[in-house]
């Protein structure tokens, strides 16, 4: 009798993949890009990696807060990566929305800890 396969935690998998993308972006920024593109890649990689690790750490305490961290990192870093790879500069106007989502995620985490969760 075959056992049914169960799906693990997709949000945790997304955080792990986010960490992998951060390493790729950082490596490309350090070795394949120059000028402003290298700066954007480095900044995006740093923020994305920090939030990938933080998201995995707090995932069990608050999936909503972790989700905000992931969304924020994707918007913030994703727009920087896109511009570094030749995307339109207007994407820079979207970048702060990612920062806002990350800030709200951190505030949510603080509230969770204050409530003892």
From TrEMBL:
Pfam families: DUF423. Its main location: membrane. It is found in: Membrane. This is DUF423 domain-containing protein. Keywords: Membrane, Transmembrane, Transmembrane helix. It is a multi-pass membrane protein. The chain crosses the membrane at residues 39-59, 66-84, 90-114. Belongs to the UPF0382 family. One of its GO terms (cellular component) is plasma membrane. PANTHER family: TRANSMEMBRANE PROTEIN 256. It comes from the Bacteria. InterPro entries: DUF423.
């Amino acid at each position: 009798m075959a056992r049914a396969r169960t799906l693990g935690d997709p949000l945790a998998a997304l955080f792990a993949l986010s960490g992998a993308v951060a390493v790729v972006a950082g490596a490309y920024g350090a070795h394949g890009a120059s000028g402003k593109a290298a700066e954007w890649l480095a900044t995006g990689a740093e923020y994305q990696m920090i939030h990938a690790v933080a998201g995995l750490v707090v995932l069990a305490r608050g999936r909503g807060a972790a989700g905000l961290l992931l969304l924020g990192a994707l918007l913030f870093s994703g727009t920087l990566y896109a511009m570094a790879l030749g995307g339109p500069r207007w994407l820079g106007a979207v970048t702060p929305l990612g920062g806002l989502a990350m800030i709200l995620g951190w505030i949510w985490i603080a509230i969770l800890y204050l409530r003892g969760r």
